[in-house]
Amino acid sequence: IWDCVELLGVVVRASSAKVEADAAGEVAAPGMAAVMRQFLTYLRIECGLAANTLLAYEHDLKRLFEYAASRGVTSPGEIDALLLIEHGRWLHEQGLAGRSIGRHLSVMRVFCRFLTANGIVEEDPSELLESPRMWKRLPSVMHVKHVETLLASLDAGERLYLRDRALIELMYASGTRASEVCGIGEEDLFEDLRMVKVTGKGNHQRLVPVGVQAMRAIDDYRRELRPKLAREDRPTEALMLTRRGTAMDRIDVWNVVRKHSRQAGLKDVHPHTLRHSFATHLLAGGADLRVVQELLGHAKVTTTQIYTHVDHARLQSVIKKYHPRA
Length: 326
Hints:
This protein is mostly helical and about 325 residues long. Helices cover about 60% and strands about 5% of the residues. α9 packs antiparallel against α11. The longest helix has 20 residues. About 10% of the residues have low confidence.
């Protein structure tokens, strides 16, 4: 998103000129709702943000606008640093966690840069904002034997057994997000190479190798079950289908993982747990950090480094358990 913000000066020159012309002609400044629509359109078209990210931005902006309205501010040009600081304090009083407040502040920074670039405000009112300091949470990770337990708990007698097994095997083998695995189509599979093309955040694509067991499970599903689920009146290229023949969404994936983890007696297991486990198990086995970064589709290696801390925590637990003077 910051790369896109840096391009604002180039992208919105025409818009800035229009704002100046409108101001000279005493045309009324755009309202909150109109500016928000322009901002979200920019994020969608120019920055290529995902639909879920856009919904989060819209939600945070609506809270800002509601607070601004309560303070008598009804125009984007009236937003100033004091209003933003007081809004952040209000969010804290509402009991929001530091991470949630940090996200709100990030959205406000990007939005204020947009206002400045378009000439709606003269100076960026978010320059004085400081993000709250936050502890980094270690992601929850499954032990290898728990992954085996999860896969072994699948009931071969269930109608969707082949799909569910292929789904879980693929997610653990490739480290894909729930939204990413939903976006995989049949044309994205390269069986001869044992590779899958994944479209991640910002429509960035990457090729991820898939292990033999996962590819075998996918092949069984495609050969025996998917043709039965597919419907002629609702054609789709999506690999993973629901029992109704439509493409699975994130909620469907979440429900499948939750259902089978409960059957296996495992707690706090969700689709992202499989992604965390994929990365942690690779690093614990000696994989290079840069390689894991590429496989996960992280833009920065610092995002991937958290998995090294997970491994360090495991090493510390081993020392505490077995060292006589630990």
